Amino acid sequence: MVVTTYRPLPKELSDIQQEMEQHALDYGLDFFKTIFEVLDYEELSMFAAYGGFPVRYPHWRFGAQYDELMKGYSYGLQKIYEMVINTDPCYAYLLSANDITDQKLVIAHVYGHCDFFKNNAWFSQTNRKMLDQMANHATRMNRHIDNHGYEVVETFIDTCLSLESLIDPYSPHIRRTQKTETRAETKKRTDEESESTGGRFPAKYYMDRYINPEEVLEEEASQKRQKARELSDQMKFPKERMRDVLYFLIQYAPLEDWQRDVLTIIHDEACYFAPQGQTKIMNEGWASFWHSTIMTRHGLTDEGLINYADHHSGTMATSPNRLNPYKLGIELLKDIEERWNKGQFGPEYENCTDMYQKEHWDQDLGLGREKIFEVRRIHNDITFIDTFLTPEFCYKQKMFSFAYNDSNKTYEIQSREFQQIKQQLLNSLSNHGRPVIYVQDANYKNRGELYLEHEYLGVELKLDYAQDTLVNLHTIWKRPVNIETVVDDRPTILSYDGKKHSTNSKEKN
Amino acid sequence: MVRRIDRDQQRFDKIIKGKVRQQLRKYINHGEMIGRKGRETVSIPVPNIEIPHFQHGEKGSGGVGQGEGEVGQPIGRGKGEGDGPGQAGNERGQHIREVELTLEELADMLGEALELPRIEPKGEDALTSQKDRYTSIRPTGPDSLRHFKRTYKRALRRMIATNNYDPKDPFIVPTKDDERFRSWKTVTEPHTNAAVIYMMDVSGSMTDVQKEIVRTEAFWIDTWLKRQYDGIERRYIVHDAVAHEVDEDTFYRIRESGGTRISSAYRAADHIIKRDFPPSQWNIYCFQFSDGDNWGEDNSDCIENLKQNLFPICNLFCYGQVRSPYGSGDFIKELRKVEEEFDNLILSEIDDKEAIYGSIKTFLGTGK
After folding, report:
1. d(CA A315, CA A298)
2. Same domain (yes/no): A43, A81
3. Which end of chain A offers a freer environment for a tag, N or C, measured as fewer CB atoms within 10 Å?
């Protein structure tokens, strides 16, 4: 019932689908059952606006997204050919206006995604029943709307969405913090500790320096100071900095129950979508690798060739100021396959200094296919690039790094050096290109202020946005909020106290 | 059934219109709308509709690209188009949204924002006018009004009735008798008539900036009045030492120079009113804009003319004096002397673009 527009594939397409599915299986792809539907552009845009999910809670940004997709399409600026969602079974939507060659290509592409969703480690913790979960979220949200009014809830959703990227994308995979001590436990422990500290023993004055030796007292006093210091460290809250700011707020911000629930929904949905951001290059590369493999070997007819070439090259188009994840992904996978087929890896190859020999290195190992399946299982974009990007590849792909030149307000080509390109690429990919932010202290200045820290990696925050975001953060925390970052190359604390913003250079410790 | 997305889209629509309302002053003060006049809707760019996040700015940012080029070669501005660089093509770029509004919607917003009263027509408020409406059908008429569907329907009916219709070869040939034509009925409707006369000083002391201010203000006044009256007639006068009646387009585009004789405009206005708009039947509005730099001896002539001809018959006579670096700005002083006597005379001094908004309120806030 969830997918209300469901229409079974017409015979022609269902034949193609079965054929493509068989090819995919023959190549060793492994996916959940995949349900295809054909939609017109309006419907497809609608699904896309909701992130692929037919039932989500009401919010204007979905409408905005839809508006943009429809406008982009009618102006001929963009077109969505398909959409797949990571669930079990997988749902895939095809555009009805695709011609038959497009449909073949797209279906083959979809099976690549479905295989990736099922097997890539970064998706292993996602909720495969997310259709139901999303519908539940919608129900909960609608209940809050009934109780508190549309605009009240909408405004609060806006506030939460402003913070939605402040999650920990690795949290499903790593336990970062020890269980937090409850307040009662802390009190019991500190009470015991304060009692155990010693002092002078009673003694006659002439015996005192023997019974209470100066050095021992000194030592005891110093131990006591040490304890006190530790104690105050324990009072610091949270004890370790926390990456998942949103989760921290859910636990500790003074929210009403319904607000906490809204924030939880936003948090859970953001976590669900996080792996897609972490594996964009790999996922699109993998799907493109399979559509091109299957199409060029099995799927093409004479009359479809031009269409295929046109569509495929359109997908692979590069541009100077934006990296195409499809292109980078597929080329890197092809490169890995070739290198492992020829044995171009390992110390012997790495240390070879004869350029001619290196270029014509071929041990005929045939390990390529196996290798890329392994790659798709364990890597995300960052580890993928970090492990497999080579100077030869960068050169062949004409890659360069670019940087913003503040003096003429332009992006300029910065370097074609391998190390620079790689570093820049890893930086851009880190945390999906977003700043990494931690909760450093929730009792800043011992006044219950929230203190966040931006892990500065050379790129400054967009200031006006940061200030607006602080306002939203304050709405939730209800006490002054601060973020430590870098402004004009100086460590700086941006603060908002509920009435006004302030910007202070961080004093030296 | 209302689709989920329609509801979300309507909500979005409401929010951006709210944004426009918030920033209405900015849109009013800047003359961007004028070129779009005549179309049904205007597109207004609405920035910053998105939800703020902690995100990277440009300083220190960069990315990786592919293609030819030397080190140091620019690869385009980062802002504004498509996906932002530095995000490996993942992050959405900044979009400037355009919202489509009709001029009527804008006029309503303006009215609301300025708290303009609805204008109450003077005198006989139930003037009738006659209008032709194409609502009926008749058997004769010109070919251009032939109603194809009705004609062919009748022809088909006739052919079936006479057993001349063969479904396998479905030819239908209408005869003269089958033809039907659209026809109109003349209906009388209650009607309030308004005539607006815009006068603009285009003499040498009026710079382009001043003219721009006048045009912007005239545009918004016009938009508001159009909203208030079903039938509104406009006339445009430009003058330096002599006055000319011009069409709307010319009024919004003309560049002139020369000396200034304001009375020439008044005479022209009087002439137009006598010719086209008998005051008993029309609500008459005059809007005059100048930098107030009149040829000295002409001033008394002007006042005389106003008292004699224009003040007695106008709902409103509005004089907007635009501050100019060259003009003397004296003319308004002359009008101030008679301001008390005539409550349909309204004066406004417009210092700069920012003052347009307030000036509109001064003029239209009376509700006359």
Report:
1. 20
2. yes
3. C
Chain centre distance of CA B280: 27
Taking contacts as CB-CB distances below 8 angstroms, the residues of chain A near B59 are 404, 406, 459-460
Say if residue A447 is in the same domain as residue A488: yes
User: In this structure, is the dihedral angle defined by the CA atoms of residues A366, A369, A370 and A371, taken in order, positive or negative?
Assistant: positive
A10 in a domain, yes or no? Answer: yes
Same domain, A89 and A8: yes
The three-state secondary structure class of B144 is helix
**Closest-approach residue (CA) in chain B for A452:** B54
Contact across the interface for B64 and A323, Cβ inside 8 Å: yes
On whether both A403 and A486 belong to a single domain, the answer is no
CB contact under 8 A, B62 and A322: no
At which of A268, A288, A303 does a domain end?
A268
Q: Is residue A200 part of a domain?
A: no
**Kind of pairing between the strands at A82-85 and B193-201:** unpaired
pLDDT tens profile A484-507: 999 988 999 999 999 999 999 886
Cβ pair A63:B60 closer than 8 A: no
Residues of B whose CB is below 8 A from A454: 54
Single-letter code of the amino acid located at B177? D
In angstroms, rounded to a whole number, what is the distance separating the alpha carbons of residues B261 and A230? 89
Which among A64, A328, A416 is the nearest to B12, CB-wise?
A64
Which chain A residues are closer than 8 Å to B78 by Cβ? 321, 404, 410-411
Same domain? For A404 and A451 the reply is no
Count of domains observed in chain A:
3
A358, A486: one domain: no
Scanning every residue of chain B, which has its alpha carbon at the shortest distance from the alpha carbon of A138?
B4
pLDDT 10s digits, B232-242 = 888 999 988 88
CATH 3.60.150.10 fits B192-365, yes or no: no
Domain that holds residue A488: 435-505
Instruction: Give the pairing of strands A82-85 and B231-239.
Output: unpaired
Nearest residue to A308 (alpha-carbon basis) of A111, A112, A109, A102? A102
The burial of A120, by beta-carbon neighbours within 10 Å (0-12 exposed, 13-18 middle, 19 or more buried), is given as: buried
One digit per residue, the tens of pLDDT, for chain A of length 509 reads 344 556 778 888 999 999 999 999 999 999 999 999 999 999 999 999 999 998 999 999 999 899 888 888 887 777 888 999 999 999 999 999 888 999 999 999 999 999 999 999 999 999 999 999 999 999 999 999 999 999 999 999 999 999 999 999 887 777 655 555 555 555 565 555 554 445 677 777 787 878 888 888 888 888 877 877 776 665 667 888 899 999 999 999 999 999 999 999 999 999 999 999 999 999 999 999 999 999 999 988 888 888 888 889 888 888 887 889 999 999 999 999 999 999 999 888 988 888 888 888 999 999 999 999 999 999 999 999 999 999 999 999 999 999 988 888 888 999 999 999 999 999 888 888 889 999 999 989 888 999 999 999 888 999 989 999 999 999 999 999 999 999 988 999 999 999 999 999 886 54
- Pick from A66, A424, A462: which is nearest to B57 by CB? A462
Query: B255 phi and psi, to 5 degrees?
Result: -125, 130
**What average pLDDT does range B236-251 have in this prediction?**
88
Q: What's the predicted TM-score (pTM) here?
A: 0.72
Which residue in A40, A53, A397, A402 has the most chain B C-beta atoms within 10 A of its own C-beta, making it the best mutation to test that interface? A402
- Report yes or no: B172 and B155 within 8 Å, Cβ to Cβ: yes
Q: What is the DSSP letter of A506?
A: P
B9 and A165: CB-CB below 8 Å?
Answer: no
CA torsion sign, A141 to A147 to A150 to A153? negative
Q: Do A63 and B58 touch (CB under 8 A)?
A: no
Residue A70 near chain B (CB below 8 Å) = no
Please judge whether B56 and A462 are an interchain contact, meaning their C-beta atoms are less than 8 angstroms apart: yes
Which residue ranges does chain B devote to CATH 3.40.50.410? 192-365
Residues A264 and A410 in one domain: no
Test B64 with A414 for CB contact under 8 angstroms.
Answer: no
Q: Is residue A38 domain-resident?
A: yes
